[in-house]
Amino acid sequence: MFDRFHTTFCQAVADDRITNQEFSELEKTLFEGDGIIDEIEHQTLEALVYPFAVAEELSLGRSVDQYVFEDQKDFKRLALAIDHGAWSVERYIQLMRDFDLGTKNDEKELLHLSNSSDLHHSSPITIEGISWNNDGTFLLTLKDPLREVTWHYRGETDLEMIDLSLGDFTLYEVVEALLDFRKREETTEKEKNNAEAILATIQKLVANTVEEDQELQKEIQELFANNNHNIPVTDDYKKDSPVLRGEHRLPPIFYGPAPSEEVKEALITAFDHFEPGTLAILDKSQIHFCRYSEIARKYYNTHPDQVDLLGSYDGLSFPTSGGDYILLSNEADQGAITYTVVHEAGHLISFDLMRKSGGVLNEEEIQDFEYRGVAGDILMHHLGNFRAKRNIPLLASHPTLYGSTNEMEWFAEAYTLMTLGNNHYEAPWELNTILSGDVGFDFKSRLEEFRYEDPVGYLLMAKLKQYLSENRPNPEEVLSWTIYQAAENLVYASGGIINKETEQAWLEMEFNFGAEEGYQRWMNEQNISDRLTGLASINSVQPNFYPVMRDIILTSLEIRRKSQAEEIGLSDVEMINALAGASLTYPYDPKINGMLWELLQCDPRALQPEKNCRGPLFKDKEALKRLSELAVELHRRYPEENIFEDLYAFALKQEGKDAEALFVFDKILQKDLSYLEVRLAKADCLVNLGRYSEAEKIYEKLKEEGKGNFEIQFAKIYQGESQWKKLVDLLNNEADKKISGESSRFMTITELLGLEVVPHLQNQEGWNDLRQKAGQLAKRPIAYKNEKTLDQIDLLYDFYRLEPIEVVLKNGSQPAYLPGSRSYKP
Q1: Is it the case that residue 635 has pLDDT exceeding 80?
Q2: 465-492 tens-digit pLDDT
Q3: 751-755: Cβ within 8 A, 24+ apart
Q4: Which of 251, 394, 446, 542 has the most CB within a 10 Å radius?
Q5: Are 649 and 665 in contact (CB under 8 A)?
Q6: 3-state helix, strand, coil in the chain (%, to 5)
Q7: Residue 171 to residue 495: CA distance in whole angstroms
């Protein structure tokens, strides 16, 4: 079935040239009505961007390399949208901004079109001739940009014969064309009557084909019932009115368009299997019926790392400060609805566990957790390390293929297996691809396989079902380090086989959460030295309690970072070896990787380290080398994992391998253009490689986005390019800010003298003004902390012939500094 986009596309490729006007129309119709690029539209656009024959898709008889874009930027717009997964209008607009292209049409117009329900979407098929006879026969001439067919209907009822008469057109397209033809202003009254008579004939014809083609009957009946395909997309779900409130054993309140009877039956099937604890969580949430496009659009906008286009997406759940939400497609099949509701309920359960175990919502992006709590740490720990130790297919190490996506989907799919696997519920065929990649997926059979392949995960889910069935209040009874360690011990003791008796013993087992409570208490201790002492006391009693081992290392690193002193009694190399041991044993632990990532960003060559980095934590060259080796080893073991690719890139940069680091940074940015730390690191690599103009563009773009002013970086670029006039202007500007007190973050004259540019400036315009401002600055106390800064003071004295500068040391005293010497006088 064609729509307005495909009509516009066919008109655009009717000759060898894509004009500005044609691309403008194409861009508008691409997002019109729903605001997303669907899978069919994506495939159509690929025909213009990548070298395969358009003829194969559209029977045009020519290949894509024959098409010429009047504006080459239009080709780039399409290529970027496909390569970077800009499947929603919001992401498309942002992507065009990121590459300084802008959209072809006005951004506001695109957004308006994407949210408008008043658009007239005409069928690409036009009615060129229509006549109706009293004996029930008719003549209908149909045309689109590529085909023309005359259908002479003589009363036949065989659908195969009708298909032959219609040629390449389908009966569905004919009905759509007639419905559109009937609404047009230019259609005469007689033609409207003829269209009504033909539609009635087709409707009667289809009604008698229940056994022959049930799917066709369903599609055409829906088309007759509602031929408006442009329901507006909104994000304000709270304005929806309740459509179900406790109906048919459905306790939560549902919002949006009233669901069909099939959807109600699907909901009942799901809710019949829910535990009291699950129902209690759902009672505090909202479930909204939406169109597929509405769900997909929200998904694309909240998942910037999503590149692959989703073939179907029937549900979405997300947390907010005001409660959790489930968006549910009112277009999905009955079987898919049952599965989707259970899966999304699994997400809401995980949100609840995360909040109760210390999780914190991200204040800037409310639909995600900044920290997912102990429950989230355990899920990532289990999924990552279980996967890391098994070189087997994804389906053999996860509940389903979809469950291999991340720890959140692992949890939701494992919960779905436990919920639907205790009966003979059979997944509808359209879910087979995401569940198993094959046909005939059966939840009950897959649950038994999951029990055998991932016994620790199975025990956690069994404990979760018990927790929900009894509606217990404490999350530590299901996802805590004590429970996790006990599950690992039981699996080891049972030889990895969890039978019914072992499972029953597990559910009846009693636990001592003393170590857990002590661990949480010490982790909340603000004094980090006391925290380290407390964790060490737990470790002496329970040396195998994993989070204590991990946080002893991380707390020690924190002490080292804050004090820059060796208060913990371990050398640099010993600290790195401890971190390496934890990283390689538990490679997916988020806290360990977060610390490693932060350490690798601390570039000792950086003129002015970023605000979250106080310079290299380790001064020992062997320790720094060991740190880089660790990142390289993690990337070698798990090359497909984004976190280890990031670590590897920063390790290369720290070792001074700028060209190699630049290559990896570019790969990372292909996945996520907004990655600020990587953009900064890439620019720094370009400066070190002498590619100043490329680096300057990046810093200008970051400055334009409000990410900083980057005075030091611009100064270094101007020095490298010998642009002394620009450097003088920069010095003057920053000195003005300092003197007037307008800037809280500025560049002092002494910092710039570290670039050794003063000799080049003596004969340049603005030099006298700069000297004067430097004199004003020199009369103010300036804080210095190291020998390098003393060298800069000497430079100030030598080049500016200024009066002595007061130096404020870290301890607050104010000794006088004697020019030309390295001695202090209290």
Answers
A1: yes
A2: 999 999 888 888 889 999 998 999 999 9
A3: 751/607, 751/608, 751/712, 751/792, 752/712, 752/715, 752/727, 753/792, 753/795, 753/796, 753/799, 754/607, 754/788, 754/792, 755/715, 755/716, 755/719
A4: 446
A5: yes
A6: 60, 10, 35
A7: 61
Q: Measure the CA–CA gap between 70 and 63, rounded to whole angstroms.
A: 18
Evaluate if residue 698 carries a pLDDT over 70. yes
Contact between residue 732 and residue 765 where contact means Cβ atoms under 8 Å apart: no
Q: Per DSSP, what are the bridge partners of residue 514?
A: none
Instruction: Please state, in angstroms and rounded to a whole number, the distance separating the CA atoms of residues 443 and 426.
Output: 7
H/E stretch holding 17? strand 17-18
Given a contact cutoff of 8 angstroms between Cβ atoms, the answer to whether 568 and 554 are in contact is no
DSSP for 599-658 reads HHH--TT-SS--TT--S-S---HHHHHHHHHHHHHHHHH-TT-HHHHHHHHHHHHHTT-H
- The answer to whether the CB of 604 falls within 8 A of the CB of 654 is yes
Amino acid (one-letter) located at 820 = G
Look at residues 794, 718, 733 and name the one whose alpha carbon lies nearest to residue 769: 733
C-beta separation of 545 from 485 below 8 A = yes
**pLDDT over 70 for what percent of the chain?**
72
810: three-class secondary structure by DSSP? coil
Neighbour-count burial of 74, counting CB atoms closer than 10 A to its CB (0-12 exposed, 13-18 middle, 19+ buried): buried
Distance of alpha carbon 506 from its chain centroid, rounded? 37
Neighbours of 567 (CB within 10 A): 14
Tell me the C-alpha distance between 793 and 752, whole Å: 12
Distance (Å, rounded) from C-alpha 411 to C-alpha 651?
Answer: 33
Q: What is the pLDDT of residues 325-358, one digit of tens each?
A: 898 887 777 778 888 999 999 999 999 999 998 8
- Mean pLDDT to the nearest integer, 62-76: 74
Alpha-helical (H) ranges within 184-227 are: 189-207, 214-225
**Using H for helix, E for strand and C for coil, what is the string for 308-343?**
CCCCCCCEEEECCCCCCEEEEECCCCHHHHHHHHHH
By the 8 A CB rule, do 289 and 322 touch?
A: no
DSSP-derived 3-state class of residue 155: coil
With 0-12 / 13-18 / 19 or more C-beta atoms within 10 angstroms meaning exposed / middle / buried, residue 358 is: middle
- Nearest residue to 486 via CA among 570, 544, 555, 556: 544
pLDDT at position 345: 95
DSSP 128-148: EEEEE-TTS-EEEEEE-SS-E
Q: Are 559 and 553 in contact (CB under 8 A)?
A: no
State the Cα–Cα distance between residues 305 and 645, nearest whole angstrom. Answer: 15
Instruction: Compute the distance between CA of residue 310 and CA of residue 70 in angstroms, rounded to an integer.
Output: 31
Bridge partners (DSSP) listed for residue 130: 140
Strand, coil or helix: 29: helix
Closest CA to 104 of 78, 125, 123: 78
Residue 1 pLDDT level (bands cut at 50, 70, 90): very low
Cα Rg, the chain, nearest whole Å: 33
* Pairwise CA distance, residues 276 & 494, whole Å: 31
Could you tell me which residues come within 8 angstroms of residue 340 by beta carbon, excluding any fewer than 6 positions away? 314, 315, 328, 329, 332
* Assigned token pair, 696: 């300057």
User: Phi, psi at residue 648, to the nearest 5°?
Assistant: -65, -45
